Amino acid sequence: MEQFNRAADFYAGKNDPRYANLVGGLRLVAGEADKLGEHQLPTDQITSGFAALNRAILRPTERLVLPSPDQLVAYAREGVIRRFGRDFEIPNPPEDLYEDVDRFSALGIRKIRISYQPTFQFDPQAELDPSHEPTLPIWQEGRGVNLESRYWEWMRDGRLSVEPWRAGWVVSMGGTKPPYDDGMQHYEDDAFMEQDIMIALRNRTGAEGLGKNEYGPDYSRAGVSPVDIEEKIIPYFVKVTGAKGIIEMPTALEANIELNDEDPRSGETNTSEWRADKLLIGKMVNGKFVEDKSGQPDRLDAGNSDYGGLADVFDWRSGLRRDYTAFRLRGRYSSQAA
User: Fold this and answer.
1) Using an 8 Å Cβ cutoff, are 313 and 276 in contact?
2) pLDDT tens, 72-95?
3) Is 148 in contact with 301 (CB distance < 8 Å)?
4) Threshold 0.85, pTM exceeds
5) Residue ranges of domains in the chain
6) What are phi and psi of 48, to 5 degrees?
7) What confidence tens digit (pLDDT) does each residue in 285-309 have?
8) Side-chain half-sphere of 90: how many Cα atoms within 13 Å?
9) Residue 146 carries which DSSP code?
């Protein structure tokens, strides 16, 4: 049976029942009190998901205690092999990651996934070649979908000013993207973002506030622009949570790979999400892109099932707000030596 060392101090001398919960948001599994008192899970109750090691002990206060660094590295390695088809060296997760997950869970953030993004060089020209075999196993037919060709054209032409793939440990937050409901749609188990972030910012006055939602209820993640997210929502999220990691939106490429693997249902709903990518404006001159610096870069949204699901990606002006385009956040963490 797997040892949960980080829970040892809490469970020492306890006899009451505990529950085990996957960090990825899978079902709760009740454990036997005496075995949990020894900080162990009964093997007959460990599902294949638990065997993947992306698990945590749920305290009575509903705060998660992560597995040891070695266990988390073992879980991350399985995910990397599943996504990339080969192994990579994975350093230990930094302590900041543990501290942030503890803070997030204590505040009621429930949909948390932990993964590692290895250093990897994508070749846009290869992705545009129709005869090229899928670069990643999760892009193989029947398993998932690559981003549509315009994304790789933008990358090839040097128009993406945010690095499309950023290596390191990642804590993703946010469940399955909901279907459109006239701006009333909810993300599942999203009380913290709705109440403590969105409604709070809608009610704040001055430059830090978002103002009332013109496109739906104040709790909604939709009805905000990429500028709103980066200049108001993320700073306020960091202030409220005390997050130590880099809080950001995923890029279109990062979200595509994660959601193909962990949550393909997010590509089956007719809403979209803003991504971190910034698309430079300009024109091609003699085969080279020349930026027009007189305006702001466009921003990308992605994931709408009406336009290709997880393959979908499109560019829009940076200040655009719509009732069907929302966002998700994640924390990114530098690694420490193994």
Assistant:
1) no
2) 999 999 999 999 999 999 999 999
3) no
4) no
5) 1-67, 116-333
6) -60, -30
7) 998 999 999 989 999 999 999 999 9
8) 23
9) P
